[in-house]
Amino acid sequence: MNILVIIIAVIAVILLLTGGFVSSLNFLLWVGVVLLVIAAIVFLLRFLTGNKRV
After folding, report:
1. How many whole angstroms separate alpha carbon 9 and alpha carbon 48?
2. Is residue 54 part of a domain?
3. pTM value?
4. Could you tell me if residue 8 is inside a domain?
5. What is the number of domains present in the chain?
6. Is residue 10 one of the residues assigned to a domain?
7. Which of 24, 25, 36, 48 satisfies CB 3.0 to 4.6 Å to 12 for a cystine?
8. pLDDT in single tens digits along all 54 residues of the chain
9. CA dihedral in degrees (11, 20, 23, 31; nearest 10)?
């Protein structure tokens, strides 16, 4: 699951950069923000509960 969180975070950063550089693809900015929030929530759940299977 740790690899999945890393992949989601990398995709989120790429989409944030793409959305920031290309104004016509502004929706990518929001997709990147949503993916980054999801990755942060999963990481926090894993960190706070100590469960490696979340």
Report:
1. 19
2. no
3. 0.56
4. yes
5. 1
6. yes
7. 36
8. 688 888 888 888 887 777 666 665 677 778 888 888 888 898 888 888 876 665
9. 40
